[in-house]
Amino acid sequence: MKDKHIFFNPFRMISPKFDAVATRLEKLYETPVSESFTLEEGLLVMLSKLMEMTRRIRVALVTDTPQELDICDKLANDVHAQEKILTSNLVCAITEPPEMCRTVVLFPGHLERIGDFLESIVKCCHIKCRDGVPFSDRSVEEMDVLFKDMLTMMTNVRDSLIVPNKFLLTHTISQAHDLDRMCQEWQLSHVERLLEGSATPQMSSLYLDILESTQSICRHIRQMAKALVKLLPED
Questions:
Q1: Using CA atoms in the order 168, 171, 177, 178, what is the torsion angle rounded to 10 degrees?
Q2: How far apart are alpha carbons 228 and 234 in whole angstroms?
Q3: Is 38 helix (H, G, I), strand (E, B) or coil?
Q4: Torsion region of 129: left, alpha or beta (phi above 0 gives left; psi -120 to 50 gives alpha)
Q5: Mean pLDDT over the full length of the chain
Q6: pLDDT of residue 200
Q7: pLDDT at residue 113 above 60?
Q8: Does residue 98 have a pLDDT over 80?
């Protein structure tokens, strides 16, 4: 059985052999799924793929380019595959887990669930492209804010995995809460537009699905950020 690397230092999230790759974080999403990744490596690769999905969905919503969505489908499959490997390796390696291990064993699952909800948004985008469902200028602007904020939060979590940053994590928790509240407000406003006849039922269904998926993504990001804060040493 391969040696299963577990956190000797929970915030030394990149192994030495991975440092060269980590300097090219923007291209990390291109890294193939691997059984040889340490937990640290696998988490960074999963996050990179989720961030690239988020970037491409943001473009697809505005430009109606299904090619972007096809790439998202491949990235989502990679995320699912990597989660299974990382979680399996963790479960096999931990016998009597300390509290830290009880926490980090959930990290691959949190990232996979984020991928699930991004996939749900991808499906909405596929329908929008296929059926030519128009979004109002206001809705497009709101979607742009959603994806920009989600990308920022994922980047903050990634950066905090590489270099521990309590301030950044605390800010991410607050940002996730604010984005969730914003989604609730937009849902209420959208219902009013639907009742007024300024939004179509088909557009409304897609729009609300995207908001609900965003709220779920916020919840998982917030849970990861809170868990990382607890692993930080006391000041």
A1: -130
A2: 12
A3: coil
A4: alpha
A5: 86
A6: 86
A7: yes
A8: no
Residue 139: both structure tokens together: 């809705």
> Is the Cβ–Cβ distance between 162 and 45 less than 8 Å?
no
Amino acid at 119: E
Instruction: Tell whether the model's pLDDT for residue 67 goes beyond 90.
Output: no
Token pair of 153, please?
Answer: 């939060």
Lowest mean pLDDT among 12-16, 38-42, 82-86: 12-16
pTM of the model: 0.87
Give the pair of three-digit tokens for residue 100: 């830290």
Residue 122 one-letter amino acid: V
Rounded Cα gap, residues 13 and 231, in angstroms: 13
Torsion of CA 71, 168, 10, 180, to 10 degrees: -60
Query: What is the C-alpha to C-alpha distance for residues 142 and 214, in angstroms, rounded to an integer?
Result: 12
For residues 207 and 220, what is the distance between their CA atoms, to the nearest angstrom? 21
Structure tokens at 107: 């990290």
Q: What is the pLDDT of residue 72?
A: 96
pLDDT (tens digit, 9 = 90+) per residue, 138-165?
889 999 999 999 999 999 999 998 888 9
pLDDT at 198: 81
Q: In which element (H, E) is residue 115 found?
A: helix 107-131
Q: Hey, how many other C-beta atoms are within 10 angstroms of the C-beta on 208? A: 17
3-class DSSP state of 235? coil
Whether residue 121 contacts residue 47, with contact meaning beta carbons closer than 8 Å, is answered with no
Q: Look at residues 49, 43, 56 and name the one whose alpha carbon lies nearest to residue 27.
A: 49
- What token pair was written down for 34? 């691997």
Tokens coding 60: 């697809």
E strands, 22-134, are none
